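Cross-posting from the modeling subforum.

Setting up a comparison between two proteins and wanted a second pair of eyes on the formatting. Protein 1 (sequence, then structure tokens):
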Amino acid sequence: MKLNGISDNEGSSRSRMRVGRGIGSGKGKTGGRGVKGQKARTGVRVKGFEGGQMPLHRRLPKRGFWNPFATHYNEVNIGRIEEAVEAGKLVAGQKVDIDVLIKAGVCSKKRDGVKILGVGEIKTKLAFEVASASKSAVAAIEKAGGTVKMLVVAPEAAQA
């Protein structure tokens, strides 16, 4: 076998169509693009157009609501805070706020603040300055000798 004797199988490839080479070629004048308009131009495609049929993005119902006034807190359980104290990342008696929790690796980013939740138990005396805290978390922290200062006024407390 010689290199000059190698060829493709019969019918495996077609020669390319030369468009726009005169009316007699069958692909002249408009070059297979139809007539006029946006789609006859080069590099244009109508995104989402389905041939006049109602497009999928308009057939599906709208759903959900984005509340621009919603608050997104870092939710931290008191058990997780106690683990950070035992690991030496938080010191007993110190003021605990969002910056201290991020530095200790308990939270990853600031968001709208911290909400302390009451899962687990805490034995260390800590002074918290947080956006919010559950009643069970406040009770557990105060039982351990700590304090909780709320930075955000709760809606029910504001009405009273």
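Protein 2 (same layout):
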Amino acid sequence: MSTPTIAAETLAAAREDIAALLRISEVHGYNEGIDNHYSLTIEGYDELFLLNRYGPHWSEMRPSDILLVDLDGNVVDGQGGGQITAVQIHRQIHRARPDARCIMHTHMPYASAIASTKGGFESRLTQNSMSFHGTVATLAYGGQVQGDDEGLRLATAVAEGANVIFLQNHGVIIIGKSPAEAWLRTYFLERACEVQVLAQSTGDELVLAPLEVAVHTNRQWMDASDEEAPLLFAAMKRLLDRDQPGWNS
């Protein structure tokens, strides 16, 4: 099968978005060494996705470090390769759910801590956590994702409608229809998990909002996110321009 041609300016802009996500995430402490990975499909080219290459630290990621990969895991444009777990996770999820344009897998400290508790994420605890009410799945740990079976297991959870998957004893997977939406969810998920950890650390009983309030608040968040997500992402890029000039060269 021949590789479809993506307009150069479209591909360049998408690569810049992923590089920005990686750098922004490092600024917030969401990375772990040179591991973890983000991907993005370009509308109209569902059989291909962008993925950060394995090797560079997230603080040094540039658009040229972003690979173009097909759903069989082959690098069709770019130098280097992706981590094996990255290729398996992202190709399977993109195949299972084409609307999941941007997929972010991290070992964020607070979200990973919550993923390692028996009670898990409490979506009725805070206003931020209510933004995820009804959109979260939890999966038991199945080892490193180095084969098709484990990748398919993760993809099944996403295909069933979850936007966040807590991987027990591991980390999280977050999806969005755009880099901006994926970043908004990632940022506010970690904030929600941070507050949950702090609240639980007091040893006092948690105050949970009524179910109907959580549902209502989630709808409010969903209605507002289309406006907030691009504004927040643009602000993050401005901070990169200010603090890391030349990051996208």
